Predict the structure.
Amino acid sequence: MKAEKRKIDLLVLSDIHLGTYGCHAEELLAYLKSIDPARVVLNGDIIDMWQFSKRYWPQSHMQVVRKLMGFAAKGVPVHYLTGNHDETMRKFAGMQLGNLMVDNKLVLELPGAGKAWLFHGDVFDVTMQHARWLAKLGGWSYDLLILLNRGVNHISAKMGRGKISLSAKIKNSVKSAVKFINNFERTAAELAIHQGYDFVVCGHIHQPEIREITLHDRSVTYLNSGDWIENLTALEFHAGQWRLFRYHQDMPADFQEEDEQLPSTARIFEEMAASFALTSPLV
Ligand SMILES: [Mn+2]
């Protein structure tokens, strides 16, 4: 008998890095086939467009894209939040095509739990120290941080130093990596506390985590969905509870994969175009 798909109120994935050799697309596909999410947030670095020029694109990577788009085609809201490796998507921020929504950040009211603020987190790369006071200036400042990062990377690239990347920073030394991660988590938590959120959900640093962070007597739950390069992790919210899914520990070994027919790309676009026609105003 085939295993029932596990129902999840909200699934958060990030840092899949499709199009790179390190991406564990087959494991991710098996996981996606085992669940039935009511809402999906893709929190950045889903398709790695920095590395895309290498023209590595196996079938399993395309199947992941089709599976994710298939959720949208079946009526599941899918939020594509942009990261630094898929920053070309940022020009589509605010766009909605049927059930697929593209944006830089997202706020969700989680029933029975509180308010969650979701964003990739690369905005802290260049401006970790400045991020705090800049972000406190107002609601628009997240977008300002994105512009700042882009500006700095543009200058850095022109000077022939390449884009400032996280991996270079982290690979420097274990000590500096730990310091960077702590700093990242603290910055995210501080901003979330300042803006009154109950949860702050990031990706980017490839460090899966769920933990309470208290600063100045106020606390927030910091969450990170990890990645599908090394950790193979996802965040699941269900029945008022967050959980960190770890593929190596939590994937049922005896899960019977269904012979699911993934929708063709043409079919996905057809359905999305149809729902788009239904939802968009005539003028
Ligand atoms: Mn990233």
Notes: The longest strand covers residues 209-215.
